[in-house]
Amino acid sequence: MSGVLVGVGVGPGDPELLTLAGLRVLREADAVFVPVGDAGETGRAEAVVRAHLGAGRVRRLVFALSGDAAALERNRRKAAREVAEHLRRGERCAFATLGDPNVYSTFTHLARAVREEVPDVEVRTVPGITAMQDLASRSGTVLLEGRDRLALLPLTAGEEALGAALGDFETVVCYKGGGRMAEVLRVAEEAGRLEGAVYGARLGVEGEEVLPAREVRGREAPYLSTVIFPRREGEPRG
Asked: What pLDDT, in 10s, does the model give residues 97-148?
């Protein structure tokens, strides 16, 4: 009988934002896996897990960020085979992922590859606090109220997609791809949405930044960056 694979959302980085449900699953798992960009580094998801379980329980899976699609696929396949070995022994496996396992998560790709290795595996997820929720809290920003609508898209979506979202939705949130920050802020300014926008990076960890988005213009931003464009004051709702 194959085991169970559970994707556990551990939040944006602050160990205190790991949910009780997520902590229970991690503690009860036979094997706990974490994604890293390099086998010699401690990733943010791993740091959260270590804060609660210690280093001895953690097994690293390399998911190097690369533009080479073939290399990315090889990483996923290798990681899936390693997890599959434990599942075939009937073990309960937990995979810790930043934020939520169903929102732009490495877990989605891992689970798909694992299912190809172990077709009858049971896959579950435990929700986690997202970066946009954490940034909204740390910056005192209201994400939604009344009939407001929210659009979530990656910074890499392109100017057209971002412009359309800024024009159609009361609140717009952009994730990841900090290298496109200058383009994103320019499009937002042209749309009249830069005022009141907030930027966040390294939330809950050393070097955290939470500041008005306009102050990031002309600067490099890390890959895991978040920008919230809230509803403009006086704008009709819905």
From this structure: 999 999 999 999 999 999 999 999 999 999 999 999 999 999 999 999 999 9
Q: Please report where in the chains the tokens 């954490």 appear, as a residue.
A: 134
Tell me how far apart the alpha carbons of residues 147 and 237 are, in angstroms, rounded to a whole number: 6
- Rounded to 5 degrees, φ, ψ at 182 are -60, -45
Distances (CA, A) of 10 to 16, 23, 51: 9, 9, 11
Q: How far apart are CA 95 and CA 114, in angstroms?
A: 12
* Euclidean distance between CA atoms 153 and 23, whole angstroms: 29
Task: Judge contact between 24 and 62, C-beta under 8 A.
Answer: no
Question: What tens digit of pLDDT does each residue of 178-193 get?
Answer: 888 999 999 999 999 9
What is the enclosing helix (H) or strand (E) of 95? strand 92-97
Alpha helix ranges (H) inside the chain: 20-28, 44-53, 69-88, 106-117, 131-139, 159-168, 181-190
Taking each helix axis from N to C end, the angle separating 106-117 and 69-88, rounded to the nearest 10 degrees, works out to 60
Helix (H, G, I), strand (E, B) or coil at 206: coil
